[in-house]
Write a structure and sequence with these properties.
The complex is a heterodimer of chains A (113) and B (116).
Chain A lengths: L2 E3 L4 E5 L4 E3 L2 E3 L5 E7 L5 E7 L5 E3 L5 E5 L4 E6 L8 E8 L7 E2 L3 E6 L1
Parallel strand pairs in A: 2-12
Antiparallel strand pairs in A: 1-4, 3-9, 5-6, 5-10, 7-8, 8-9, 10-11, 10-12
Chain B lengths: L4 E3 L2 E4 L5 E6 L6 E8 L3 E9 L2 E5 L6 E5 L5 E5 L8 E8 L11 E2 L3 E5 L1
The chains are: A mainly beta (113), B mainly beta (116).
């Protein structure tokens, strides 16, 4: 069955510290992978996506993610978080000719001053 | 380019009533997807429309329905509202020609529905 797992419901990080949010997927086809961010009271915004090629992808707001096929993972990273990064982060996976994305449950990021 | 708009932003209804939510996609986008978001269940896929045709439907009861118009605007309807329908309803648009599984989705701010 297709699924996306974000093991951490909440993560607390100090401002200026590095961040890694985990995402594991189970998908039969070649996956198309996405990370979205949802700030409080807003809709979701795409941070980055991986379709093929270089397994390290850069996104907006200083985020990057690495696709590791052997581990079925697509973890999101940022070297130094800012208070404005406090939000909920969603990992999603899709495939060509699929008409929906499979979504993870989300990870809420809390920033300590 | 204007983003995805959803109306209304907030709605309070009572059990048993019905509600219609509206979504206007980004100009040129032909695919519209609807999601229900609740604290306990996360983001749940409702349905996806492309060029007025429903291409996929999530696991929701028949009380949830939708449609898409020729200008790509979409509506979703929930009949006989239940308390458990209280949620944030998100609409997302994309180009979607090859399926939304590979397309970036652009989300609206959502409609917050409260059922009392």
């Amino acid at each position: 069955a297709q699924s996306v797992t974000q093991p951490d419901i909440h993560i607390t990080v100090s401002e200026g510290a590095s961040l890694e949010l985990r995402c594991n997927y189970s998908y039969g086809a070649t996956p198309y992978l996405f990370w979205y961010v949802q700030s409080p009271g807003q809709g979701l915004q795409l941070l980055l996506k991986y379709f093929s090629g270089d397994t390290l992808v850069q996104g907006i707001k200083g985020f990057e993610a690495e696709f590791k096929r052997s581990q079925s993972s697509f973890n999101l990273r940022k070297p130094s978080v800012h208070w404005s990064d406090a939000a909920e982060y969603f990992c999603a996976v899709g495939a060509r000719s699929n008409y929906q994305l499979i979504w993870g449950a989300g990870t809420k990021l809390i920033i300590k001053p | 380019k204007a983003g995805v708009t959803q109306t209304p932003r907030y709605l309070i209804k009572t059990r048993g009533q019905q509600v219609t939510l509206s979504c206007s996609p980004i100009s040129g986008h032909r695919s519209v997807s609807w999601y229900q978001q609740t604290p306990g269940q996360g983001l749940q896929f409702l349905f996806e429309y492309f060029s007025e045709t429903q291409r996929n439907k999530g696991n929701f009861p028949g009380r949830f329905s939708g449609r898409q118009f020729s200008n790509s605007r979409s509506e979703m309807n929930v009949s006989t509202l239940e308390l458990g329908d209280s949620a944030l309803y998100l609409c997302a648009s994309s180009l979607g020609g090859s399926g939304t599984g590979t397309s970036e989705q652009y989300f609206g701010p959502g409609t917050r529905l409260t059922v009392t």
